Amino acid sequence: MELQQLSSPIVVLLFLAFFGTSLFIALRISKKTENADSYMTAGGKIGFGISSASMTATWIWAASMYASATSGFTYGLSGPIHYGLWGALMILLIYPFGRRIRKVAPRAHTIAEVMFARHGRSSQLLLAGSNILGSVISLTANLIAGGALIDMLSPFSFTQGIIAIAGGILLYTLWSGFRASVLTDFVQVVFMLGAVVIIIPVVFFAAGGPELFTAGADNLTGEQKNFFSSDAFFNQGAPYIAAVLAYAIGNQTIAQRLFAVREDLIKKTFVTATVGYGSTIIGIGMLGVIALYAGISPLDGDVNNLIPQMAASYLSPALLALFFIMIIGSLSSTADADLTALASIMMADVYGQQVGRRKADPAKMVLIGRITMIIAISAALYFAGSDLNILDMLVFVGALWGALVFPVIASFYWDRVTNVAFSVAVVSALAVFIPVRFSWIDMSGAVAIGFDILSTIGIGVVFGLMTFGFLGKRPALTVGVVTAVGSAPWTIGMLHEYAVLSGSLVSYAVSTIVCVALTMLNRGPRFDFARVAETTGDFDDRDLSGPASREIPIALNDDEPVSATSRRTTTNHLEEDNR
Asked: Where is this region: Disordered (predicted)?
C-alpha cells in the first residue's frame, strides 16, 4: 500500500499553528521579572482542570503511544491492555503517596530537594541524578518519535524533524517554565483526546472493520491470539507494572505536578488522569493490533514507524493532518515537562542547595533554569541520532527508578530510615539490577534459583507497596507475604528466563531488604518530619504584583483566578506559620 504524505507547506503551517499557539500562551503569561518558585511549581495552587489535563498530557507522550502500538503488534490484543491498564493504575497509585509527600513537604519543588532535607546530600544526588538521566532519555525518545513522524509523513528528513520539534518546544517553554508547560498541556490534551476518538475508528474500518479479525487471524501466532497470553504478561505486563510504579514515585515530572496542584485536589486530579490515560493509550495501541491482523510489517523493520505508517496508509489528508497534530502534541506535552523538571533540579537541587535557600538569587535561578533547558534539548538532539528502541528505553529507565521506590516511600513514613540505609540500598539494587537486566550472569543452577527467590520477594514488595498506599502497613505486610509465598511455586525456576522482569523485581527486592536491614540497626534518634517543611520552601520572596506582572487565569482555586498578590500573601502566611 502506498503511503501518502503531507506537503511541505502544510507541514510548515501545522508547525506554525501548533507551536505558534503554544508560544502565544507562554508570552501571555510571561513576566518582565520571572518568579523563581512560580517558574518551578506555579506556586503550588493549580486547580483541578489545568492540573488533571497536565497530568494526563504528561503521562500520554509520543513514546507511550508508539510503545503501546508496538506492544499490540508484538503480543496481540492483550498487549495494549497490559500497557495501558497498568500504566493507568499506577497513576491512581500516586495520589495516596502524593498526599503524604505534600503533607511532609508542602512547599517543596523536587523530590530530591525533600530527600536532602530528610537525609542529606548523597540521597539527594541519587534521586536527582536518576531524574537527569531519565528526563534526557525521555526527551530523546520523544524526539525520535517526532523525527520518525516527520520523516514518514512529510518531505522533510528525520534530522530536520527533530531540530524543528526541539526548537518549537524550547521556544515556548523557555519563557515561563512550568507555568507554560501546564497551560499548553490543556490545549494539547484536548487535541490528543479528540484525535483518538476520531482516528482509531477510521483506521479500523478502513483496514477492514470487524471482518479483519476473521480474515487476518492466520497472521497471528497462538500466543498473539490468546488474550491471557503468558508471553504478553511476562514480557510486557509484569515488567510494566514494576516499571511504572517506579516512574510514579521517582519521576520529577510527576512530582512537579504533585507539588503544583492544590493539596485538596490531589485525589481528584490523579483519578481523572487515570481514566484519561488508560482509555487513550489502550485505544492508540489498537493501531498495532490492526496492523498485526492486516499483515502489515513495520517500514524498514523499525517498530517505531508503525503508528505513522498506519496513519499514512489509511487516513485522508485532513485526518492525517489531525493525526500529525496529535503526535506533535503528545510528544510536546512530555518534552516540555522534562525540560521544566531538569530546570527545577538544577535550580533547587544544585544551585539552591549550594548557596542556601535564604541566600539564593532568584534571577540567577531562573537564568540557570533556562540555560539547563538549552543544554538538555541539545543533548537530546545528539542522542536522538542513535538507533534506540523506545519500549526498551522505557522499561530500562523504569527499572532504574525501581531501586529508589522503597527507600523513597519508607523515608516519608518511617522515622528510623537513615541516609546510609537509603544510599546503600539504592546502590546495591543498581549493582544487582544491571548485570541481571543485560544477562551478564550465567543464569543456571543455584545462581538462577537464587535470583528467582529475590525476584519472588520483589513481587511481594510491589504488591505490598500498592496495598500500603491505600490500606496501610498491616494489610500491606499481609498482601506482600501472601503474594510472595503464593507465587513462589510457579516463579522459582522460571523467572530468570525473563531478563527485563527479573531485573526489575530483583531491584525492588534488594533495595527493600538492604534498606530495612540497615534501618533496623539504627539506634539513633528518630527523625522529626516537621524539619522537612522547615528546610524546604520558597526561594523567591519578591513581590511581583506590579504592572509588569501579567497573569492568565489558571483556575487555581477552580472558581476564581489567583493573582500574584494573593499568591504572595499566602506565602507570607506560610512563612509566619513556620516561624
From this structure: 555-579
Q: How far is CA 37 from the centre of its chain?
A: 22
d(CA 198, CA 122): 49
Question: Cα–Cα distance between 240 and 123 in angstroms, integer?
Answer: 25
Closest CA to 365 of 344, 391, 337, 386: 344
Model pLDDT, residue 129 = 87
Instruction: Pick the closest to residue 179 from 358, 379, 25, 328 (CA basis).
Output: 25
* Res 390: pLDDT: 56
Separation of alpha carbons 324 and 14, rounded Å: 8
The HSE-up count of residue 324 (CA atoms within 13 Å, CB side) is: 30
Q: Which of 359, 353, 370 is nearest to 40 (CA)?
A: 370
* C-alpha closest to that of 379 among 181, 179, 138, 555: 138
Give me the count of residues in the chain: 579
Q: Which residue has the cell 525476584?
A: 455
Residue that has been written with the C-alpha cell 497462538 in this structure: 222
**Is 261 in a helix, a strand, or coil?**
strand
Burial of 535 (0-12, 13-18, 19+ CB in 10 A): middle
CA 503 to chain centre: 20
Q: How far apart are CA 307 and CA 327, in angstroms?
A: 10
C-alpha cell at 106: 508542602
Is there a contact between 111 and 536 (Cβ–Cβ < 8 Å)?
no
DSSP code string of 391-430: HHHHHHHHHHHHHHHHHHHHHHH-TT--HHHHHHHHHHHH
pLDDT digits (tens, 9 = 90+) for 240-262: 777 777 777 878 888 899 899 98
Contact partners, residue 131, CB within 8 Å, separation at least 6: 110, 111, 112, 250, 251, 252, 341, 342, 345
Please state, in angstroms and rounded to a whole number, the distance separating the CA atoms of residues 495 and 454. 10
pLDDT digits (tens, 9 = 90+) for 347-391: 999 998 888 888 889 899 999 999 999 999 999 998 887 766 655
* Residues 370, 373, 375, 378, CA torsion sign: negative
For 477-511, the pLDDT digits (tens) are 999 999 999 999 999 999 898 888 888 899 999 99
Q: Are 309 and 143 in contact (CB under 8 A)?
A: no
Bin 455: left if φ > 0, else alpha if -120 < ψ < 50, else beta: alpha
Average pLDDT in the chain: 85
Q: Which residue has the cell 530536520?
A: 160
pLDDT tens sequence across 541-578? 765 443 333 333 444 333 333 433 333 433 343 333 33
